[in-house]
Write a structure and sequence with these properties.
The protein is mostly helical. It has helices at residues 4-21, 27-42, 45-83, 86-89, 99-117, 119-136, 141-159, 165-174, 178-207, 215-218, 233-236, 242-265, 270-293, 297-327, 331-336, 345-356, 361-375, 385-399, 403-421, 426-434, 438-463. Helix 9 (178-207) packs parallel to helix 19, helix 9 crosses helix 21 and helix 18 (385-399) packs antiparallel against helix 19. The longest helix is centred in the first third of the chain and has 39 residues, at 45-83.
């Protein structure tokens, strides 16, 4: 079962983990790993080069929607900053003066939005407006970023009770009815989510105030959304009209409100919801550019789009490279990158471990956690769900343990891993929206993640 390519892939994973331990972004070893695994798998230098490129294309294809969506949001917020209309939109948020209130209130709103439209579109809708506004009110952006990650993808998507994308994948992989998955997942999602949110908050209260706040965060009041510098108000708002800014704020507010209502009414979910929000954002950007710039609209529209896309591509370039390496271990990578049929390296590793370890409820649960983490190294958290579902059924049959708690444990751990543990996962998307370094956010998402996983693990043991 195991080939040289399996060992080479595992070797580079260990190098990447070693680099992360020393707080280094392992972009270079991951990129070299593309060629190393490609040569080991194909035995041909030319084909190895082609494999590395196909892996990057696969990762880009999976991330392109997020990149473009964030680019458009950045472009729109740049327009709002220069016109001064952003002050009208976010004025109600200026009443929040406490980190505690901001953490819990923004988190709960993010959780509800995630249940309705999934985490990425919810993040772009909420984070793009909230973070810069509260930054100007003196609220540190890190608690907001942690809240968005923990409550959004962590709690919201690990259950996915409304859209039911995650439990449907588990259901298809296991043959267990989705209603059973949802019923079993509710207590573990709420328990692990509550523990994760609480520990994340405690970590913020204990350590954030003791840190020297970076100057660029202290100057949040002079910054626009997503880390883009606000120009001098005398220059940016020269000739601006309060009435016109009210019109712009009204157009944007009503457009996004109508978008959310449309998403709910027509049950538009996932990528389709992101596409609708992206298209509405582009339409608003066109209209507002004409309203604010008039004769300069042709030239200024290009400037806004360039700045937005430049920022998004700059943030996601290393994420694409990292994801491309870990896609090699998935079924999608095995089929679309190596052009072979098979379940992928991660599945093979899981089967080997199950043959080595004695199968008790402790070892089986721990194995499910390990498989979920391993399968989520591409950063999505979603790609591991068919894997952990299939492994949960296989292990339950061999160990005579119930499959449902194991499958739910894999679902929760896999989504939380993509949400809070992987630097190129949802934390990176949150970092792009917040304008904060990834490692600064992960100081607080990792304690929250560990608390959530430990709670989910303990609950599962009680169910077996």
């Amino acid at each position: 079962m195991f080939s040289i390519a399996h060992w080479v892939f595992l070797f580079f994973i260990l190098i990447i983990i070693f680099a992360l331990f020393f707080r280094k972004l392992p972009l270079l070893p991951a990129t070299i790993g593309l060629f190393g695994v490609g040569i080991a798998q194909s035995g041909n230098g030319i084909e190895a080069v082609q494999i590395s490129f196909r892996a990057i294309i696969l990762a880009t294809d999976n991330l392109l929607g997020v990149i473009v969506l964030i680019g458009l949001i950045v472009a729109l917020t740049k327009l709002l900053q220069e016109s001064g209309a952003d002050q009208i939109l976010v004025s109600p948020l200026m009443r929040i003066k406490s980190i505690s209130v901001a953490y819990w209130s923004i988190g709960l709103v993010m959780w509800v939005l995630t249940l309705l439209i999934w985490p990425t579109p919810a993040l772009t809708l909420l984070g793009a407006a909230v973070i810069p506004a509260l930054g100007r009110a003196g609220i540190h952006p890190i608690p907001l970023a942690v809240s968005l990650a923990v409550f959004g993808k962590g709690i919201g998507l690990s259950g996915d009770f409304v859209i039911q994308g995650a439990p449907s994948l588990i259901s298809k992989a296991t043959g267990i009815p989705i209603a059973v998955i949802l019923s079993a997942s509710f207590p573990v999602v709420m328990l692990s989510g509550g523990c994760g949110a609480l520990i994340g908050y405690i970590a913020l209260k204990l350590f954030l105030n003791k840190e020297e706040m970076p100057k660029k965060l202290m100057d949040a009041g002079q910054k626009g959304n997503l880390g883009m510098e606000r120009e001098d108000k005398k220059v940016t708002q020269q000739g601006s009209s309060p009435k016109r800014n009210q019109w712009i704020a009204g157009i944007i507010g009503l457009s996004y409100l109508g978008t959310v209502i449309t998403i709910l009414m027509y049950k538009i979910r996932g990528d389709e919801a992101s596409g609708l929000i992206g298209g509405v954002t582009l339409l608003i950007l066109c209209l507002c550019t004409v309203l604010t710039e008039k004769k300069r609209a042709f030239a200024q529209f290009i400037v806004y789009v360039k700045e937005g896309m430049r920022y998004a591509m700059g943030v996601f370039a290393p994420i694409v490279m990292m994801s491309s390496f870990f896609f090699l271990g998935t079924m999608a990578g095995y089929e679309q990158v190596f052009l072979l049929d098979g379940p992928g390296y991660f599945y093979d590793y899981s089967i080997l471990l199950s043959e080595i370890l004695p199968l008790t409820k402790w070892t089986v649960s721990a194995l499910i956690v390990f498989i979920a983490i391993l399968g989520s190294l591409d950063g999505s958290g979603f790609s591991c769900l068919p894997l952990v579902g299939g492994i949960a059924v296989a292990l339950s049959q061999v160990s005579q343990l119930p499959a449902v708690p194991l499958a739910v444990l894999g679902q929760v751990v896999g989504i939380w891993t993509g949400a809070a543990l992987i630097p190129w996962g949802f934390v990176a998307v949150t970092s792009a929206v917040a304008g904060v370094e990834v490692h600064s956010i992960m100081k607080y998402t990792i304690p929250a993640y560990l608390a959530a996983v430990i709670c989910a693990f303990g609950w599962t043991l009680l169910q077996l």
